[in-house]
């Protein structure tokens, strides 16, 4: 709702169309412009509460016989919304910040990872701009790490001595991310210099990365979405 408490257009539309929250229209616009989710896609929704993105993701898969799946994860228990969702949607209660990648991969179809990862995670806003931006950056980096794993760290070196950035630990199942090659990633961030840093990390990893501020975003909000398309094969160093 808007500042006066009166329902706004997107709130009313969500009520009319059976979405559990107005935030559904953010993903509707992202999907309309970028077509990230296709029939047969395997979708991971990080921070899925209250479930509106689960609804839009499932709708984007098309009819049930198209296949595909949607897995939603949130630290809260989230019930799959009865409208716009079908048997392809399930939710898991877990802390995204501590969930090991190998366990996340096991949730994917045939344990081969996901073709689309959506992160609508956002910190509880304190009103302290720098603090909120830092927390948002932490959530964004976690989403990126889950998606591409060690590749994000390698990209972040960006001209530094890469040998110094290598880990001495043996390569393991949690080194690799759970986003498939060619896959798409959406990360919600609060506008800041830190957000720009994540964008710079993503640029060499994906064939295309763009910013979008959906129309359904509240005027007072600083949130913006980084949309990364076409994960490139990992470059060995």
TrEMBL record:
GO terms for molecular function: rRNA (uridine-2'-O-)-methyltransferase activity. Keywords: Methyltransferase, rRNA processing, S-adenosyl-L-methionine, Transferase. Residues 19-230 form the Ribosomal RNA methyltransferase FtsJ domain. It comes from the Eukaryota. Belongs to the class I-like SAM-binding methyltransferase superfamily. RNA methyltransferase RlmE family. PANTHER family: RIBOSOMAL RNA METHYLTRANSFERASE (PTHR10920), RRNA METHYLTRANSFERASE 2, MITOCHONDRIAL (PTHR10920:SF18). This is rRNA methyltransferase 2, mitochondrial. It comes from Cicer arietinum (Chickpea). The lineage of its organism: Eukaryota, Viridiplantae, Streptophyta, Embryophyta, Tracheophyta. The gene is LOC101497355.
């Amino acid at each position: 709702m808007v500042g006066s408490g009166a329902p706004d257009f997107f709130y009313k539309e969500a009520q009319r169309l059976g979405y559990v929250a107005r935030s559904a229209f953010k993903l509707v616009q992202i999907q309309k412009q970028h077509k990230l989710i296709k029939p047969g896609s395997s979708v991971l929704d990080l921070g899925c509460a209250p479930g509106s993105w689960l609804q839009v993701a499932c709708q984007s898969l098309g009819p049930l016989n198209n296949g595909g799946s949607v897995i939603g994860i949130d630290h809260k228990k989230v019930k799959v919304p009865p409208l716009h969702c079908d048997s392809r949607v399930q939710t898991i209660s877990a802390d995204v910040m501590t969930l090991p990648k190998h366990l996340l991969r096991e949730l994917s179809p045939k344990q081969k990872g996901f073709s689309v990862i959506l992160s609508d995670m956002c910190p509880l806003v304190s009103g302290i701009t720098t603090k909120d931006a830092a927390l948002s950056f932490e959530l964004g980096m976690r989403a990126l790490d889950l998606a591409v794993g060690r590749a994000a760290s390698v990209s972040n070196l960006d001209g530094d001595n890469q040998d110094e950035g290598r880990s001495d630990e043996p390569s393991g199942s949690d080194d690799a991310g759970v986003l498939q090659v060619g896959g798409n990633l959406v990360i919600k961030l609060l506008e800041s210099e830190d957000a720009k840093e994540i964008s710079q990390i993503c640029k060499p990893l994906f064939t295309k990365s763009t910013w979008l501020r959906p129309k359904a975003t509240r005027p007072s909000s600083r949130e913006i979405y980084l949309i990364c398309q076409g994960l490139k094969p990992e470059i060995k160093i």
